[in-house]
Recover the amino acids of this structure.
């Protein structure tokens, strides 16, 4: 019905934007055809140009058309599936794959052939993700685009580059724009973060040579830090990196909204840890200093007696500290959402095979830090020799590998809770 | 049966090579699992290492396993297709795509994450293509790998580079190794082909920075050549390229057996023509000097009276010349194999939108030239403004766009033939 | 006497710094000897290291020693000169040159062999120039060092590089530090100066790859500007450089105190004008927008009736404007100091062969602009075809080539002056 | 007289070439003047262009003019020297230096400002050195040019680059052209010399980025070699460089005739030894395998009884071997020419501070090897810790530092000689 109505309206009341979008859709169909194979570069260039000239309404209309008109034909699919079921031959498998792949995928592949095509597809997906909030049916388009991008941004095609003060300003400027964890207050602040006792590494893709896709900031220090302020201080003395014993990953930021859901952080941290280890043999510990973004809302819900009303200031008495640390330990090690840790940062590092090492009271006393986690932060430790085993524990046994101290704290939290924990699993001291 | 027998034999008599291949297959399954997502880089590195240590028999066994055990499950596919047929929802489409994609694809994607992964996959496909000659069932593996490689080696990811005498010797050496059309007899010969009145361009992929994937050799000359010898002469004077009026594409070579069927030639020729046009505004004509590889066998079959016995020397009388040129024109413009020109070189250039311009008697008097085409070669002309229209004619109307002279020659051939032509279409003077 | 006293004091009361300086001087003598030839790299590295560890007093003492002990021997020089006068043979000339060249030159050459040697010599000269203010006898050291640096920083060894937003931040930071004409207020201001309708070029020397030696900032605009504010506005729209008709050199800055007196500005402006002309054929005019730094002090001295007391505000009435413009024209075209124009900026551009084109009232209303030149600025025009002829006029005939309007203004100034002009030459309309 | 006659002939019978050369000489005078300062780049470009168009006779005439007309004025020199002798003031020293420096030097500096100027000056000197064989008076021109080039090609301005198979072919081709010690028979031979157990390093100057100025070839082997054949074998297996214990400098070649007398070999060998030592810590010995070019002619003259007639074949008996090795040891350690070793290769390595280690019988059985040194070669060892001490011994005490075995051999040679040795010094076992 929606379709029919749309078409009827279309013939009378389409706007100029919509007509532009439909003309582009026709060209895209052509681009994905055999003719596109021969004149692909020219047609792709034109299509990318036309897309760039669509206004917002035109782009939204194009997404609609892509979702509606470029999916596989259910009848063809069923016939091909039946044939494959009857005889799982190579020919039947090829036919099945051909009719099952939406034409959209080939369209995106061919648009990518134009200069600037990859950047355009990332911009398109950024807008598509936003449009999906209004129109969930667009998910079929996103599914195809995400599938392609995950394949194209394969780790094997990414280049790890060190970012320092000799990096072009155009790239450094992007770090300032994108940094999500600890805001960079202009070039002088950034310069301190790129001195020789700090490091910054990013993944780049050859098709976007000036765009850091994800970057990690590292401080080379004497010992695992319990406080982020000294790391961010812009006036601190620059230390000799050869003497550092601990590499702290204090910020990791993905930059491309158009790559949402395609994760490189895991590869980045491990590669950087390996490379730093080779360059600076005195480094013994690779750890993060990480926020606990979901702690306070959870604690106020699950242990209201301890955690206080959500609009009060942070509790500060010594008793309070013990209780809140215990709750943090419990939250991080025993609260799950399906097969994943409840806290999103914990989920990332534990899923990567890190060990939960230490809770740091008063580590981030900014208002954001107080509001998230009563000012606490945690260290996750990457022990490259143990990463696989830890990951196994986490994925296969739903055990969070943690230090003995955290395990003890977590056990102390049980009496404080208003209900039984969601996870039957105990954390595993590692 | 084959399968069952294989498994029975397997349990008793598997060789060490086969056991290695099966261990690797198990690891590949693991690599494609969720665990592979977290520890992917490490597992991929190991898998690539293991593959490198398999002997030929082990590799063949691995291909068997990949073909046999990693295809989609027909029952799951049928159920998903039925659900999609019943309700073409986003969720059902996602499920359909998930169960239809063979696990092999994800395996190959993850192997690619290791350093050297892309090169390894090209080597694997080279061997797979060879193994397919003995065991056509392996085509299902090739289908998946070819699909991925076509996506990864998308034009948008290729870099066009000029090759000249300042190019690293390691790359130049590869030109000597790969050149398929006109053999390069060592570095001094190559040097002449890279002087300023000659050009060489190649596509590179960022994951294989030292491997030219395809390269084209161009001579910048006064007029469309009718003879290849002056172009290849190593002692010729170097001319001023600013004065040249014609760019001759005299050789185009694909280098990677592992990329068979994934064509870049079309993009390469057009991009090079555009770039040369911008650099050297005096260039008016972009043409090839191409062989006619299938002419003589065809002529001996179709016009035995003219063409003579296959083991005789080339005919040389003036009458012969006219007759043979007519046959060549007919063969190139009116002989089809399905929707494609019969001659493979014609198929490539006509499919790209080139125009068939001129037949050159005595253009290649090497024994190979005589054996293929009585020593004739042809010029295809790339007129960038007409390429799309020519391509349309060729693809949609099965018309070969050619010069009036060739059209006339082709018509003169009809009485010489032993039978009616296969194509109802007449060539179209363009 | 000074010397003798110094030596006496030396034997009793030399400080530790002085003793370090003297040890270094001994090593420098060794470095310049035959032994230095064989072990030069090692000895040079040590000498550069020792110099780096001298404190200010030690460095001053070293300069003293270099001035005192490393000059040619007057007796040897006289003998060699007499021999050359008697017989101007090759051998006598070689001997003369050998004994005339101070050992300091060879010392500096050999220090340059160490890594970082060139940068060290520039730092040494910077300090030497400062020390010369207290002790003019050090000029003999400077003479040798300046001679060497002028030879080493020969135009043929400099590399012209465009500076833009893709330039490393470490280099951009130096532009901010060094810019002397129109202060750059941080990276955002700099970014506007590097957009595509602005250009920045610098000379670099291979031994100092991260140090711009001199840089020029250019605005690409519609017409010769009469006001610097629009050029420096950070919020202005970015224009299409292909449409610009005028390239304005609005700032040129030398960065290295250690290269004082070694001029590259002449080469830089002409090379940039040539390159821009080739890139942007629509550019018709290459002009500066320049300050008149010495105008106001001169006018207050020479035409006190017009120019007013030095501490009053700028005169603003229309009569005043005419009179002050006339004085500016007179000052720039007819006031000389020896064989050079009196105004230092005029001296630079006229010496380069530029033409004085236009006086711009109210072009720089900053307090500095008012204090220097009543807010006026001037345009010098570089017409590459006329540069040599203009230069000839200036150097050989002491004529300033200027526009007719300026010539007329200058003549109008004569009655305003308190005395007869210093120069008999009239400006030459060009 | 020669001058006067030349001028008389000049006015009547100068050839066109000579007139071109004289016009150029006039322009060079202009270039070196104040006008050249302002319009230097343009004038220099023209001068370099004119020089390029002179024929051989014109160039020879230009050299004559440069020698004759651009030397310092003896009267001015004498006056300045007298003034300096009377009062060694800074001003008098500056005046002395100004009148003593030939105008030629400034001319060469200004020609260098043109694009390609440095290369042109090297070509000019190459021809000048050849012309000097006919006309020794040209040495005054060479003296100035050599002085400048030595200053410009200062070690501090040279860049050490590794040459390998990824180096541009245009540079590799030059190695083949220039290699003087062991001829490179085409690219395949060169490729073997660039595998990972071989190394090649060269110095480059920024003004000649494609010209290796000097290059050294190194083999990484198990032990100090006594035979050059295995090193040059093109079919040998490539070894793991990490296991090598000895780096053999088996060939060192200067490429630029225009830099004759300006030595970089000393710096190159030591820098390469340092760098290899840092990269490959297992390397314990840095040694050469060097020819003894002057041995046989010397031996036939000094010990005719042993050495045989010069046109006979090489002696081969065991007695002969002992006697010839003794003569070689004597020749290398005790035969001097002034303050230098008589043998040119010994002079180079001993002057660099190497130790003479071992005589290798039958090390080079090529006809050249037999003719030079009865097929013997020697190892010089570079022990970086001892280089300075060895050099001191050689330069200050005229002692050749050598192994005990060589010392013993040298002593055994004395009875074989027809006369008393020229050197009173005994070699010093080191």
């Amino acid at each position: 019905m929606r379709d029919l109505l749309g078409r009827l309206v279309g013939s009378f009341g389409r706007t100029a934007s919509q007509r532009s979008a439909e003309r582009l859709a026709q060209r895209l169909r052509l681009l994905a055809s055999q003719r596109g194979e021969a004149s692909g570069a020219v047609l792709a260039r034109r299509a990318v140009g036309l897309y760039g000239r669509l206004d917002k309404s035109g782009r939204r209309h194009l997404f609609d058309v892509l979702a509606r008109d470029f999916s596989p034909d259910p009848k063809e699919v069923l016939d091909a599936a039946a044939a494959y079921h009857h005889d799982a031959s190579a020919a039947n498998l090829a036919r099945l794959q051909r009719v099952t792949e939406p034409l959209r995928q080939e369209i995106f592949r061919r648009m990518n052939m134009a200069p600037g095509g990859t950047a355009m597809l990332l911009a398109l997906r950024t807008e598509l993700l936003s449009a999906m909030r209004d129109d969930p049916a667009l998910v079929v388009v996103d599914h195809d685009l995400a599938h392609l991008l995950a394949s194209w941004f394969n780790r094997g095609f990414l280049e790890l580059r060190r970012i320092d003060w000799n990096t072009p300003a155009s790239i450094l400027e992007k770090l300032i724009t994108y940094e999500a964890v600890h805001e960079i207050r202009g070039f002088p602040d950034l310069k301190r973060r790129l001195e020789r006792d700090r490091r910054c590494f990013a993944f780049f893709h050859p098709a976007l040579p000036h765009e850091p896709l994800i970057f990690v900031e590292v401080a080379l220090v004497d010992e695992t830090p319990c406080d982020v302020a000294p790391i961010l201080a812009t006036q601190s003395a620059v230390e000799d990196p050869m003497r550092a014993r601990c590499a702290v990953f204090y910020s990791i930021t993905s930059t491309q909204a158009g790559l949402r859901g395609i994760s490189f952080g895991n590869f980045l941290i491990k590669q950087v840890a390996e490379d730093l280890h080779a360059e600076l043999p005195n480094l013994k510990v690779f750890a993060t200093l990480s926020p606990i973004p979901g702690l306070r809302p959870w604690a106020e819900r699950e242990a209201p007696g301890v955690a206080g009303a959500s609009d009060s200031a942070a509790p500060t008495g010594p008793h309070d500290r013990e209780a809140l640390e215990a709750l943090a330990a419990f939250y991080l090690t025993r609260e799950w959402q399906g097969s994943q840790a409840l806290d999103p940062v914990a989920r990332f590092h534990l899923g990567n095979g890190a060990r939960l090492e230490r809770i740091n009271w008063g580590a981030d006393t900014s208002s954001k830090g107080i509001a998230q986690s009563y000012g606490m932060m945690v260290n996750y430790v990457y022990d490259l020799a143990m990463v696989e085993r830890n990951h196994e524990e986490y994925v296969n046994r739903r055990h969070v590998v943690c230090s003995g101290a955290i395990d003890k704290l977590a056990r102390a939290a049980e009496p404080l809770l208003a209900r039984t924990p969601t996870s039957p699993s105990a954390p595993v001291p590692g």
Remarks:
- Chain D has a mean pLDDT of 89.
- Residues 157-416 of chain D form a domain with the Aminopeptidase fold (CATH 3.40.630.150).
- DSSP finds 21 helices and eleven strands in chain D.
